[in-house]
């Protein structure tokens, strides 16, 4: 890109810096919804953060702003040293494709498309790789998430947990700086939830990925380092996690990922 946004010097280890962020929705009825109501938050590179809070407290809105899927009404958001509030829509799209990996609850996979092609998809938008390079990259990532040999299965021939692993592989394909996951285990049973959280833990520990994950489940939050709790569009708690769940991670070491 000709005018690639420059990283500010001295941005250091902070991958996300948010100050006084507001997001107000103006609805048809005259009542404005203050979904985010003056939030400030800094997240360091390599942190593994859980976002919790009651339904309607602003978690998804916040994730959408973090991922440049939605613009804040006011406040500043600096991602990896780049001030998001000063970017054009094209620049935001470029950053979305290159720095951010998304994982959603409903997987968002194309149903008639193989696991391999689903993972390759963001590479087409990003450009720059030849088709065999895209294929190799997608294959490598499916191996990392424990799906070697399932590359040609369409989502309806994969379990819910396997589909979520395809979605995670897809989120990693452009080597993002951060992974944003909105209730990634919301549709999964306990075993698949533990598998997915083991995988996230490993990606965080071994690849140093910054992961921000929304969950309603305290057992899921236990895998993370830090828990940020929203209520009515504000952060009401921001605490280090005491008891770190690591058993699932060690188990996964042997049986899921090469
Ligand atoms: N596009 C929109 N237009 C108007 N109001 C919205 C819109 N999206 C969200 N809201 C409102 O903003 C508030 C926060 O919604 P949000 O989806 O961020 O909550 P949440 O914490 O993710 O909830 P849940 O746990 O149920 O997913 C809610 O009151 C919701 O009704
Ligand atoms: Mg939500």
Shape: globular
Distance between the termini: 36 Å
Largest sheet: 6 strands, mixed
Bound molecules: adenosine-5'-triphosphate, magnesium ion
Regarding CATH, which class? Alpha Beta
**Order of strands in the sheet with the most strands?**
6-7-8-3-9-10
CATH architecture: 3-Layer(aba) Sandwich
Describe this structure in words.
With 258 residues, the protein is an alpha/beta fold. It has one domain: P-loop containing nucleotide triphosphate hydrolases (Rossmann fold, 3-Layer(aba) Sandwich), CATH 3.40.50. Helix content is 34%, strand content 26%. The protein is built from 8 helices and 10 strands. It has helices at residues 59-66, 89-99, 115-126, 131-144, 160-172, 190-207, 218-221, 247-255; strands spanning 14-26, 32-44, 48-52, 74-79, 82-83, 100-104, 178-182, 210-214, 226-231, 234-240. A 6-stranded mixed beta sheet has the order 6-7-8-3-9-10. Strands 2-1-4-5 form a 4-stranded antiparallel beta sheet, covered by helices on one side. Helix 3 (115-126) packs parallel to helix 5 (160-172). Mean pLDDT is 88; it is low at 247-258. The protein binds adenosine-5'-triphosphate and magnesium ion (MG).
List keywords for this structure.
four-stranded antiparallel sheet; single chain; 26% strand; binds magnesium ion; alpha/beta; 10 strands; 258 residues; globular; binds adenosine-5'-triphosphate
